[in-house]
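[step 3/7] fold_predict: job queued, chain A
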Amino acid sequence: MKISKTTFIFALAVLAMASCNKDLYDKDLYNGLVASQFMIDNADPYHNWRLTKHSSVIVNSQDESIRSIQILTENPYTSTNAEIVAESIIFGFEKELSYTVSVLTNELYAVAYDVYGNDLGYTKFAYNAFTLELSLNSLTKPGTINKPSYQTYTYLYESNFPMPDDFDYNDMVLRISKKKPEIGNSYVIDLTVTLEACGAGELYAGAIQLDGIRKDDIESVEIVGGKPMDDGYPTSPTYITDNSVLQSGRNGYAVIRLFECAQWAISKQQDNVGDIAVIRYNTEPTNKENYSAKVSPVTTTYRITFKNSDTADGFTLENVDPFLIHEYNTGFFEVHTYDHKFDLCISPINTNMLDYGNNVSWAVVIPKGDFRYPIEGTPLCIYSEDIDEYYGPYEGFAKWIKDCDTNHDWYKTVTDATLVY
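[step 4/7] structure written:
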């Protein structure tokens, strides 16, 4: 690090006082502080923090034997890791299917099924293909199909935006998957959300913005099972005062309420005076002086019914923007992924968010459902130019941050397994 802890704390105090008076705010000072505390020296100034890409294909089948289709990331006849990125009934008409995949994906696989759900074989096509013609003659069936799973992404957060911290990205860890609960119902999508870890030393709330989709585009959002993640929350809400599952954000996009308090959602624990227990959950391998506790992750499924089937068919994880809300300097700040860094969905804050513009993200989207995140206090990777050395569980992350055109597969290789949960 290039700045002493004492200097940093003093500078934070200056910024906190100055932020009350916009004329005193020094953007250069702020960005200098972030750069000095960020764990990678000389991060790529044009970094977009994207590990995913989005496309669609128009599927046409005149073959009456083909009833439905699934689009997969791998060949399910040879791989046990294939994930479903899109699926639909398809017979006798054209259907446009949208999908979001890893930037490493150049080919996809379409598996066709008959009316009874029996697989008829697969065909391979390019990620950015415009059309896909399906017929029995175009399919290959080499043997027994391995049942694919539904695409799941991992979302990692630092809870203290706009100020830097340890960048272990485990303050909130979410896993989110998307599926059609009934493949023949083109209006309904299930989003399954798992709160995996809460590594923050403060309370915060969580929600999901459906990017590009307005509340008026949705008929309803229901919680499968009826209970929200933070069912039984014993305190009056501070961050999300509206308990409605489906809300309209400040920009008109639909917002799904997840929880008012992550710590309560994952643990349902209070301390000995009745306050919510502020413990870092699932960020250390063992219980460490009540600082980090191991608990079961909490999972909830949100069933979204759209008013238009085309909107539902076009919905992918590209539209999913999870965010947390925390208190800073008497205001409520939202922590979004880099693409939505300056979005304000719920918070009634009037701060000019563009004042905090830089090439650092407080959230990372990982196209991997079982990604192993860092243990408490350990950044994804540290790189110092002074000694030209890397330290952390993902050396490739530092190389990717230094050059956004390289190391897009960094999340697949753990450099030091002792530093991940």
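[step 5/7] annotate
DSSP finds five helices and 23 strands in the chain.
The longest helix spans residues 5-18.
exit 0
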